[in-house]
Design goal:
alpha/beta, Endonuclease, Chain A, globular
Length: 231
């Protein structure tokens, strides 16, 4: 899927659809940059808070009783002012998640387990943008980007000028099940140029299935988390 205009933000649409999918209860969310107010983006705008968007509500709705794993936000060595702001921004969003979990538990609700990671200094440079919807520990849907969790990439129907958004391209993968096919049925929304192209793997080609690809991706990320720092 390709974002070709400010209004046509399919990353925003599908990320929230994935998180709220009735099939699944947990989420792995990775981004190279997370924008949660503390980052001064240099625009003549109010700060952007990711936690005030639909994303936080989607996590609360789709992950209650499950787990949220976050990974970010980029370079492992933050040795200048701008890089440190990105780290502060990511940590601020994680803190908002923990506050919402605490509110759930105060209301005698299940809440959600939170695991958050950053690269250890001097060892890694994380820039992957990946969201995986999980049923327990099993991947069922994945969104793989270019899109970071920033105003330019995530914000929908921006009120700002046309230069303050990014052209992005993202890929959606999901298990071949009737339930998920119905959930992502393209006939339920008007299809535009640049919208997702719905493809089915050719069974005659020797290649991993959607399930195998997502399993590999999830296991590869989890294997890296042992080298990362938990925050």
């Amino acid at each position: 899927m390709f974002r070709y205009s400010r209004e046509n933000n399919l990353f925003n649409h599908y990320l929230n659809r994935i998180i709220k999918s009735p099939d699944g209860n947990s989420l792995l969310l990775c981004s190279g940059f997370w924008e949660e107010g503390t980052y001064d983006n240099g625009f003549k705008q109010d700060p952007f808070y990711l936690s005030t968007t639909e994303l936080l509500d989607s996590i609360k709705e789709g992950c209650e009783g499950g787990k949220v794993i976050t990974v970010g936000p980029g370079r492992s060595t933050y040795n200048n002012k701008e890089q440190k702001r990105w780290m502060e921004s990511y940590k601020a969003f994680v803190e908002m998640l923990r506050c919402e979990d605490k509110k759930f538990k105060e209301q005698k609700r299940k809440g959600f387990e939170i695991e958050s990671y950053i690269p250890r200094a001097g060892k890694e440079h994380w820039h992957a943008k990946i969201a995986i919807r999980l049923r327990g520990d099993k991947p069922i849907i994945a969104l793989i980007g270019s899109s970071n969790l920033t105003r330019r990439a995530y914000e929908d129907q921006s009120a700002y000028d046309d230069y303050n958004w990014n052209h992005e391209s993202d890929a959606l993968i999901f298990l071949s099940s009737s339930r998920l096919k119905e959930y992502f049925d393209p006939s339920k929304r008007r299809i535009q140029p640049g919208d997702p192209i719905y493809l089915t793997l050719d069974p005659e080609m020797s290649q991993p299935s959607e399930e195998e690809q997502m399993d590999y991706l999830y296991k590869a990320i989890k294997s890296k988390l042992g080298d990362f720092e938990s925050i």
